[in-house]
């Protein structure tokens, strides 16, 4: 595999550290890892499968503001992305192209979804417009919700549903949760 940490077009041909190499070369000292968690990471990182992953990387960078940390492609000039890592500020995702040999299949664009990723942005209205201009479907137009968030639901061109939000009210977790619970009770009563 080749690794690229600078752009979508260049590749680093140093592939000496492979997934099959199980020899530990750098013991955990606390310099980059604490309690098993690499510094700067969250304890859960969703991995999504999309096709083509290279185009999805551009969409997530250009529309959602993600920073591309790393891209690993298969060797031999393949365009398939084996693994990519994106940072959204205080959380991130990893992603790859569909890899049937690993049991990883991409969602059907336009089909039903089994998950939604939530991302906070500085202006949900701008992001919803940019997403639509880049080929996404805006399922729910931006609206202010009882949670204190301005919210939109977007399905990207690769079949991934995103809950895009901007916090517009300065509420505590308890206040936001209470409002959502009251809203849910009202919805159930109707």
From TrEMBL:
Signal peptide: none annotated. Residues 40-167 form the VOC domain. SUPFAM superfamilies: Glyoxalase/Bleomycin resistance protein/Dihydroxybiphenyl dioxygenase. Residues 1-26 have a biased composition (Low complexity). InterPro entries: Glyas_Bleomycin-R_OHBP_Dase (IPR029068), Glyas_Fos-R_dOase_dom (IPR004360), VOC_core (IPR037523). Residues 1-38 are annotated as: Disordered. It holds the Pfam family Glyoxalase. It comes from the Bacteria. PANTHER family: BNAUNNG04460D PROTEIN-RELATED, VOC DOMAIN-CONTAINING PROTEIN. This is Putative glyoxalase superfamily protein PhnB. It comes from Microterricola gilva. The lineage of its organism: Bacteria, Bacillati, Actinomycetota, Actinomycetes, Micrococcales.
